[in-house]
User: Which sequence fits this backbone?
């Protein structure tokens, strides 16, 4: 499609006995400039009402009626939820919980991901669907299952876990060493003895816990591959995706990225519930950037809510303009679509109050419908941006495996390691400095960046320490914070000095780590006459005691028994520089500090400084840089536009109205 | 009995090896004017020490000794707790939990309510007891089991649930439609596939959840019928009751009301723990009114605490006078008894510290005993009031099925829909206006009322919308609030405009519903020149956006993007009027607003305005209206008595002492 | 050993493949004056890698290498955690939870304590170890298992529980009476019917709950005896201990005290996390005193943390000096050792961040290592104190069985009976008065004390009421508080007047007990002209209403309906006096009140008054009293030393520096 994809999840299967509903919906979708629907996401019970009896005619009919009206279909495989007959005949497809309890039928996204029976049944129906629609011009993509999550602890999954570990470690001795099982006499004598983590069994061996998370990722990725193979074997060539949910699924999406064609995700900011809408926007801006960075390509915003959700603590309405603004926001960070859950609101069950393009009244004069229509019109107008990519010079590492290792470690801060908060705080400080940011995993290439920020890089894997060394040697600027280089990928502590293999790069050595209770503060004070004069700031959460091994001390602690000892350092290494921040300063400090680094590194800012409650991002294509500025606040803001800006949306004045945006292009 | 019943639960079976205790107790009961005891509530282990061996002599002895001393017995069936031998021989009688776990022996009120074995064993002992005491003048009533609660998920209960659903829906297609099971491919292909809601299975299908609650009510009501039939078949004719616990049991007591002769309940206000004792009194006043309204007849206060309970967070003593005042309070709302749990305090196990008429010291000079005696004397003095009924002209709907539907709905406010708080708030505002109030279910007749208040009438059943229409058409005043007429009885959303079938009655249509976070506020502002000038107020929780379809707008929202849009309306319909309140104003607003409506409707108030911390209510009999005013506060209050009041308790002065009451009669 | 034991847990078994580590460790231990290690605590998997194959050579080698370097071994039996092969072959050794769920392999301290298979396997390896090391001069003691805790609910444990109850009660009728099972028809007809408390069964019969706790203590003590017998049968004569964890294990350690030679425990104050370090010190001072009082002998501080733990909410570093001060503190209360967990920090699994003498860097120039070394040097200097004992004239009862009875009782205060808080508050008030205190169980002898404080002596056992009577009759001063003498040891309420059998001793009778909500206050006001003039104070939690039966009223309540009624009384009885405090006054009141009593009783104070954030204690030996004063505050304090004090540590000035101590001897 040349245009942005505009549409969303549609469940006409809930209305098959009321044909008028489909007619009404098509009429209204056209009115709203909708050009796509995601179909069949939970349709298995209708597509295969009993084992081996496939009924696709109703689906084909709908797809073709839509297509005749200019609406394409992204077709889902139905594996997100089972028909009851399947669970009844093959009970193995239902999950087993960590305590050995067996699930009953109910819910969704809760099948055993390694079950041969489930994989086979899914393979068959996927292949049948692919045979049917592989050459259908109405079908432009495949939506594999839906919002994968969780894990199963059945005996089959346990067997697969043991095989996975055997492949990883080779010998049980190696596993015992890496997981340090001599501790508490937990030594394994064979792989057969391994059980997954369990609240009523082994639950403090962090190596086991992290590898179980890796296995869950593997099992799910393998399940996705099984589905893709079924589709491809049947001859279908349309691109495949699966819709993700950042900070929810418990998987390492970097593995998904390797097997699907396009990243896509479901974004549900807590509009009206979060501290502020600007805060909610920056939070999801980070996730958008992460989705783009996985494959360094545009992604799809597969789901978003046209109004209030039904599952957040309260169903807040989106105030006028916010629907369009949220769509622009996704596009600004690299989305090539704006899709909603859902087109028509269901009448019953758990999601009956979830916002929809068409609600229970069936009217096309609702406030929501009118805003959906306006947004559709805008996306048509800016269609030239589709396909534009990012070219950030600043990257921040937000690594899933590192998060797992930190969260499950006992100590140094069991009340909250705060990895999430730190990454988001630094990201916000970067956006206030109005630069584009890539949000990457440790395994992502560091090439091409001028600034690499690695907060709390506790667990090293994929040779991160070596690649960081090269990055700095070759002229990059590294910013690293406390808890750096403490353990290997199996949560095994490095012996000797830390940050492991980076004491020379950073010019410091960690002596001790003091964890502070919630609410406790220390401060960072600038060193007189240092090469860089920084602003005093409070700090909290952790205070590392470090000794200088060549670095220059820029700031020291302001209190406690380590008052006056180094807290922020810089070290020249090769052609580059490495900063080390031994504690957790506040956001304002990061805004100033990163502003200095950005300037020093020669990274071009999109504007001098971003007003509060706003976001800014750009995409490049065909020699043009498309810049998006959004105001999520309740008041108008002043922004300084470049002198030669080609406006695609909004006027050239310096006024950025509340709940509105400007889009313009400049030379890339 | 001509007099009020005065007594309570008595467990002499705990003291059979100390005969002196019974002698002491009888002496003291007589001293305290006690004329009734509830016996045998947990005596099964003694009545049938092994299967088929019945030992009733000890019970008959006690009953007759009491009778000789002027103390009647309400005899309990012993089904509230099982002997161990029964659970051991028939393990099916023990409950199965929602996750399939089987209960062990212990606790009480936890048998399988559909178990054939349990029903049969209960039938046998009930019949034996009835044979023994059917003609005994000492036994004046039957107390079926005790405080029914909860549900069982065993295979037998599941079978009965499926039969219940088959009777209700007729076909599985109808059930699938009403529960909207196409959602997530949860379609049932036969009734056999249905399982109860479970935390490890189906738990988001609201139709299933509500029908499971209805089934639990059905199973319990049927259990009660089984007990009543056993008693009646044996020839016993005394009236039957079962003691309920409002806001606790999870059943729809309207169904119980259909099969028992007299409503009775156990009232345990949080005296000294709640925000204030006045607040606690109004809360339980509402429950008293509800109990009376079920059958529009006097009820029994089957249990209340003579001192502190042992199970509330702290065991607060009742301050002097409160015991008597609480008794008067129950009578004022329609109780024909004042009964305590318990006459003599047990020595051990979980309730050993529960307040009792006779405590561990065995003394009759305790503060509590003296107050019990005073209260007994007062009840004798006002015996003429027994049997008097209510004649409220104002009714508020507090519907159990509606509560289930609201509470289990996902959205629009998952942190708390607040049905309970809203109903109680409006009730308090009515009482401050000093009118009698009926508290009714949706299925209750609306005839005879001048004002009908239907807050949050989310789920319509029993033709409520049609009967409301008739009520207004015929001249009634309806006050309805947000979330009105949204779903049918199965939580299936109405299509088209809502409030369903009432947009003409109310003259408004709901557009959208904004749910506010806890602590967020909007406001209602009066419309200049409106026909009714109301006081500005804050509002919270939900703000419905409504459009006028004939109604007059009396108030508008004060902020947010819907500032200025209608928030409180009135519509003339037929001979009546219908008000719609689109948000949740505060209590003070309701006091003023309802005061205006009461005046407009010509409802006679019992006094001009009730002081804080007080309650007022009346009962009518033989051409007289008996009015009760109680002061639950710690300070004396001023009240204006009618000029011609015949005092039954308290003097004619305008001073209502702290923790005291006045009772008088006027012409009805 | 002549010197204090100085060392701790050491796990060289984690480093067998890196022999250099042991060499390094020995070198560093010597440097730090370490003379002991606790070995083998979790080594079973290495000591018996498969059933019946014992490999002790590596252990003997290590023990001897250490010994050659002047480091003794306290050798652990390895029963604290099982090898996997044992759990696989004998699944009965894994625990069953209270709901019948069976544990999987994992964790530690979670075996079935009655399992014949486990006892037998433990017996065999213990005997083998004892055979090997019984005559080894390097091994100076046995460390039985590790930190026993919890209980198992398997069928075997249930059988043993039934036998335990049969031995205790003799007949089921007696049990039914004591547990008051007629309540709710819970009568047992035979011991076979008894099941342990369960969340899905019997869980409100307090007699059952308390006896289950007693059984858990019995089962664990019997397990310990089994281990000791194995060691002794093999001929080993070294003293045995087991390391306890006060306020954690759920056992009555008084039973342990009867079978082991030396008390020892693991002390982990919340330094830097608690309200203040002084508060944390007094909390653990009480536990130290308790450990000493069990056997009226010195005890071992078996574990303490050289730096931050990994399992508290945050891992706070110990500030300079605190490590040494905490060691002195333990010694001051009667410890004959200072031991750490752990000598060398493990690389992985759950405790990898737990503080250690030697951390992951392996350096001996760390701050921690240097402080460990200084502390070792000090302990050598004060070696003469080893073996000194306590001779407190003041005792406070802190009874485990009483705590169980109070905590599990339903009412009079379910939100928190506050036994712990009350005991600690009174203890703090005593320490501020600078006296030595014994902290004893009800069963401990009261002989030799001048003052006995018995707060909340709810449950009487071991003839406490008779021994209290004798204590007062013979001239002792008793201080008793509310909730005194309410139930017998089975939580069965006494009939008639309470405090049971002590109304004449105390000269008061309890009438009613009012429990206050959290945050509610009353006050105690001094009686004009009373024989003892006390300071007005707030009080909270509970207010007992008492009547005088001979006592003099010293204070009355200041508010509520019992304003003016007695609240604090004194009664002359025999040669002694008995005070009764009917409510919960604040700490300041106790400081003043107890100061008066201490003076009256002629108890000699160690100084006039202890500054805030400090602790003081003494030990006596060979005619000398060794006095320790510690300052846990962040500021220097003024203290008045005796004129003739022989300083062992610190100077003779009146300045007690922050985070430091003084130790001196005076004539005993």
Assistant:
């Amino acid at each position: 499609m040349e245009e942005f994809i505009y549409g969303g999840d549609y469940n006409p299967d809930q209305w098959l006995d009321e044909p008028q509903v489909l007619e009404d919906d098509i009429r209204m979708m056209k009115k709203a400039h909708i050009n796509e629907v995601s179909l069949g996401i939970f349709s298995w019970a209708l597509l295969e009402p009993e084992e081996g009896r496939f009924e696709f005619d109703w689906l084909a009919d709908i797809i073709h009626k839509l297509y005749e009206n200019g609406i394409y279909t992204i077709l889902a495989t139905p594996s997100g939820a089972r028909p009851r007959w399947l669970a009844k005949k093959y009970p193995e497809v239902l999950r087993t919980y960590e305590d050995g309890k067996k699930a009953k039928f109910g819910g969704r996204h809760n099948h055993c991901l390694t079950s041969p029976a489930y994989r086979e049944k899914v393979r068959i129906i996927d292949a049948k669907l692919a045979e049917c629609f592989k050459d259908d011009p109405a079908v432009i993509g495949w939506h594999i299952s839906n919002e994968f999550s969780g894990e199963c602890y059945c005996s089959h999954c346990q067997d697969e876990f043991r095989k996975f570990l055997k492949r990883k470690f080779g010998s049980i001795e190696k596993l015992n060493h890496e997981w340090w099982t001599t501790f508490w006499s937990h030594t394994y004598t064979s792989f057969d003895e391994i059980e997954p983590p369990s609240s009523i069994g082994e639950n403090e061996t962090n190596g086991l816990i992290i590898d179980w998370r890796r296995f869950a990722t593997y099992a799910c990725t393998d399940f996705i591959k099984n589905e893709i193979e079924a589709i491809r074997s049947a001859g279908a060539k349309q691109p495949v995706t699966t819709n993700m949910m950042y900070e929810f699924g418990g998987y390492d999406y970097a593995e998904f990225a390797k097997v699907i064609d396009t990243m896509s995700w479901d974004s549900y900011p807590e509009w009206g519930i979060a501290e502020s809408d600007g805060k909610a926007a920056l939070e999801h801006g980070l996730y958008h950037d992460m989705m783009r960075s996985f494959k360094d390509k545009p992604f799809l915003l597969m789901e978003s809510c046209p109004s209030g959700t039904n599952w957040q603590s309260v169903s807040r309405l989106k105030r006028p303009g916010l629907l369009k603004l949220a769509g622009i926001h996704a596009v600004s960070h690299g989305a090539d679509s704006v899709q909603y859950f859902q087109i028509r609101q269901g009448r019953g069950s758990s999601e009956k109050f979830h916002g929809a393009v068409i609600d229970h009244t069936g009217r096309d004069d609702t406030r929501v419908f009118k805003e959906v229509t306006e947004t559709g019109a805008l996306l048509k107008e800016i269609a030239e941006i589709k396909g534009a990519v990012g070219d950030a010079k600043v990257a921040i590492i937000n690594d899933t495996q590192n998060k797992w290792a930190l969260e499950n470690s006992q100590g140094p801060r069991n009340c909250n390691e705060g990895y999430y908060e730190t990454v988001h705080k630094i990201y916000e400080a970067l956006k206030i400095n109005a630069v584009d940011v890539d949000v990457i995993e440790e395994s992502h290439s560091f090439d091409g960046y001028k600034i690499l920020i690695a907060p709390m890089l506790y667990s090293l894997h994929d040779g991160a320490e070596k690649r960081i060394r090269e990055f700095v040697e070759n002229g990059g600027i590294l910013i690293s914070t406390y808890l750096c280089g403490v353990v290997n990928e199996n949560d095994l502590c490095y012996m000797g000095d830390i940050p492991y293999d980076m004491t020379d790069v950073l010019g410091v050595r960690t002596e001790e780590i003091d964890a502070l209770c919630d609410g406790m503060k220390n401060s960072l004070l600038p060193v007189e006459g240092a090469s860089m004069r920084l602003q005093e700031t409070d700090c909290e959460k952790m205070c590392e005691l470090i000794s200088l091994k060549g670095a220059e001390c820029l700031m020291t602690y302001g209190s406690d028994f380590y008052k006056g000892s180094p807290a922020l350092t810089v070290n020249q290494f090769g052609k580059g520089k490495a900063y080390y921040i031994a504690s957790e300063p506040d956001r304002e400090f990061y805004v100033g500090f990163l502003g200095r680094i950005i300037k020093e590194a020669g990274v071009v800012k999109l504007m001098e400084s971003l007003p509060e409650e706003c976001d800014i991002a750009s995409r490049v294509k065909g020699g043009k840089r498309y810049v998006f500025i959004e105001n999520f606040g309740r008041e108008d803001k002043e922004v300084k536009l470049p002198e030669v800006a080609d406006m695609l949306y909004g006027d050239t004045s310096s006024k950025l109205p509340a709940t509105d945006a400007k889009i313009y292009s400049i030379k890339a």
Notes: Chain C touches chain B through 52 residues (CB under 8 Å). The mean pLDDT of chain C is 97. Chain C has three domains: 5-157+212-385, 394-601, 614-667.
